[in-house]
Amino acid sequence: MKNVAVVGASGAVGERMIRLLEEREFPLASIKFLASERSAGKTVTFRGEKHTVRKLEKGEFEGVDIVLSSTPGGVSLEWSPIAAAAGAVVVDNSSAFRMDPTVPLVVPEVNPQDVAKNRGIIANPNCSTIQMVVALKPLHDAFKVKRVVVSTYQSASGAGQKGIDEYEAQARAFGRGEPVPSPAKFAHPIFNNCLPHIDDFLPNGYTKEEIKMVNETRKILGDDSIDVVPTCVRVPVSYSHSESILVETESPVSADAARALWAKAPGVTVVDDPTAKRYPLAASAEGRDDVFVGRIRNDLKNPNALLFWCVSDNLRKGAATNAVQIAEVLLKLEPARA
Questions:
Q1: Does the residue 336 lie in any domain?
Q2: What is the pTM of this model?
Q3: Residue 148 domain-assigned?
């Protein structure tokens, strides 16, 4: 049994972490819900009881074993070390610590052993990276991945509640025959549009989101030699990210061999029957925890290359589910406080 605190409890990911703790029947000695001063005082219902969201303050971490945190990076940089210094292990969903060499970056289906290396903080990877590495892991183990070319189709919810609100407001205005409201969260209107722009652009022409996929993939798979070539795109979908992936391997890989590996892989569901129009869909993945793969096919000329389509709910497996799964790994490692 663990004493748990959820930080960022009023946000889109925080709310799903709370629901997942219920769904997965996480063994709790106690739980508290923390957020910024703006959200403090709100109530959340957990296991049939109402709880008041409390203001994020230093004393709130005393006696806490595990912190599930989903806040902006700057807030995490300040508060996650405070929680760790109080004796908790923080599962941090921000980008603040992902590339810190002293902080494990974990996807439980891929590198659960790294949880034991924590010094009080464990980083939860980027949503687009998580689903990709879950799919890549069986291929890397069997054939050694050398190069990945990925184009993402990322939902509005990847930009948080403000992204969802902006997309839905624009869609409602269009439906009423009114002018689409000017964008605030995105650089351009997201409704009826695709934006090849997620996070800030860097001098090399890539965005920060794209570079996250490069660096995080290598760290999670433990192989700096993997070449990752990403293009990240925001699309007018509420939930679930989709990815078109071309993977090149050291040894020949067939579509049938990949299907067989994925059929046995933890956290992966194969949906691959094009003749029956069955393939992974963003709408079908919403509210589910698996990574779905389909449209599995060989490169037309390169026997060491495979193409597939990969879909997952970005707020669940891409964030909240992965964090709770990390906490479940911690259950096996950390004794509860007396």
A1: no
A2: 0.94
A3: yes
